[in-house]
Amino acid sequence: MSKQQAESSWRSPFFWIVVGLFGIVFILEFSTPPDYVMSYLYVSPILIANSRLSRGAIFQIICAAVILTLLNIWVPIHDKIHTSMVVNRLVTVFALILTGILSDRYRQTQQILVQQQVKLQAQEQIMNMREDFASTLAHDLRTPLLGAIETLQAFDRGHFGTIQSTQKTVLATMIRSHQNSLRLVETLLDVYRNETEGLQLQLTPINLAVLAEDVATSLLSLSTNRSVYLNLHYGESDFRKFLWVNGDDFQLRRVFINLLTNAINHSPRGAKVEVVLETQSAYQVVQVLDSGAGIRADEKPYLFERFYQGQSDRLATGSGLGLYLSRQIIEAHGGTIWAENRHPQGAVFGFRLPALPYSSS
């Protein structure tokens, strides 16, 4: 302990409170018959000192309590020193030392907890700043991306002169790239908006079968370019079914797009992506089956986490936002979403939503 710390401990009013308590215990100990052990009461000033004084001062207080306890074996002078007197005071000494050690460890633990809390608060502030920055940046990027897409589409329509076939191919690639960037920016904005404001749903009766067909039709160009065949079927039946839910058409459409796009992009050429729709008890269940790379066991718990990108070929190319946003949407609808491996090859991504009984009215 430094000289400055020692002076601070001596000047502390709590030090003199401890000294006063020591004096009271000392009087009780030396004024009562030797068969009574009052030294246990030294625990109180030790605990008080531990909460307010320095470790050096606490060590000195414990040493003083131990010395006074042992001194009471001989002082005041007794006719005969019994074994029980010695044993009782040795046990008391052990209890005082143990109290000091445990209280010191508790104090260190509290200090560590306070430090960790300060670190967590600092990290939380940094995370909030990062999220605000990402949200602001994504919002600012949206406008120039929209402008660039409109300009490129105007070039493609020939508004600025004749476009050759080779130039059309380049323009189509640029438009598709900008549209992908725009979707990523909009997804990022939605993720942060959902976390801060909550997902706002416009609930109406929706037939998941119709929604799945619409999304599959909109993704025909992507599946054609990838040479992947899309197939919809309804469980054990080949006939179209009604799968009514109370949901938000726009948000559920995004889930279908995310899952189907993910399946198409990770299926080999010539493979088939299946969308299975069926009713199970009180739920409507949708499963998207692909024939691509499966899911590694160590990655399954993190698939639907924000910004998670695994080490496998299946996950390394994504943004880590599509599945996370899909989970937000499905859970906001009171449903569940999952992923599992498909045998002998591929993966299954599925979700289920509470069924809404269909009526002709």
Q: In summary, what is this structure?
A:
With 361 residues, this protein is an alpha+beta fold. The chain has eleven helices and seven strands.
Mean pLDDT: 81
**Which value, in Å, is the CA radius of gyration?**
37 Å
Helical stretch tally: 11
Strand portion: 5-15%
Q: What general outline do the C-alpha atoms trace?
A: elongated
Helicity level: 55-70%
Secondary-structure-based class equals alpha+beta
Largest sheet at a glance? Answer: 5 strands, mixed
The count of β-strands is 7
Seen as an oligomer or otherwise, the chain set is single chain
Task: Sketch the topology as an H/E string, one letter per element.
Answer: HHHHHHEHHEEHEEHHEE
The rounded distance between the terminal residues' Cα atoms is: 84 Å
What order do the strands of the largest sheet run in, or round the barrel if closed? Answer: 2-4-5-7-6
Description:
It is built from eleven helices and seven strands. Strand 6 and strand 7 (347-354) form a beta hairpin. The model has no long low-confidence stretch (mean pLDDT 81). With 361 residues, it is an alpha+beta fold. The chain has helices spanning 3-11, 13-31, 43-52, 55-71, 83-156, 165-197, 208-218, 220-225, 249-265, 313-316, 322-332; strands at residues 204-207, 229-233, 244-247, 272-280, 283-289, 336-341, 347-354. The protein has a five-stranded mixed β-sheet with strand order 2-4-5-7-6. A two-stranded antiparallel ribbon has the order 1-3. It is elongated.
